[in-house]
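Q: What would this chain look like folded?
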Amino acid sequence: MDIKKILLSAATVTGMLTAGTVAANADTVTVKAGDTVSELASEYNTTIDAIKQQNSLQDANVIVVGQTLNIGGTSTGSTANTATATTTSTSTSSSTPAASSNTTTSTPAVSSSNTTTVASSSTTTTATTTTSSSSSAEDAARAWIAARESGGSYTAQNGQYYGKYQLSISYLNGDYSAANQELVANNYVISRYGSWQNAVKHWQTNGWY
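A: My prediction, written as C-alpha cells:
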C-alpha cells in the first residue's frame, strides 16, 4: 500500500479525534464584571480570535456582564499543531497555522447600569447651581450696602467712618487700600450678621449695619 495514503489516512483520523476533543472541552462562560476577552483566552488556553469567531463578536474589546460566551478548551492549540505536523510529514501540501495573538488590549466587562453616575452628575450640577446663586445673591447684597453707605467710593469719609463700606477708621488699622477695605468689611459682616443678605435686612430696618 502506498505509504502516502497511509499517512493521509492517519492524519484524517487524528484530525477527527482532535476535533472531537475540542467539542468535548468547549466551555460556556458567563461574563462577570472585570472580565476581558484576553483574560478569558489566557485562562482557557485559547486565543482572542478564537473566542471572537466562536461567538460572532463584532469587537473583541466589547463584552457585557451576564453575556454567555462559548470558549474552546485546551485542545485548540493541539489541533493546530497536529495538523501542521501531519502536513509536514506527508509533504502533500504547505499550510501555515493561523497566528494567534493575545496582545489585544480588552476592555473589562462593566455593568450596563449608569444610574449611579447619572445621579452623581445631577447632584454635582445642582450643588454648583445652588452655590452660584448664593454667591450672586451675596454679591448683590454687598453692592447694595456699598451704594447706600458711600455710593461705592473707596475714599468717601464721614467723620470717623471711611471708605466704600463706611467702616470705622480704627477697623482699618491705617490701611485704606481697596483690598483691605473689602477684607475688613467682609469679616465684619460675616462675624456680626452671618451674611451680607442678613446685613441688608438689618440696614433696611435700622438704617445702618
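The first strand starts at residue 27 and ends at 30.
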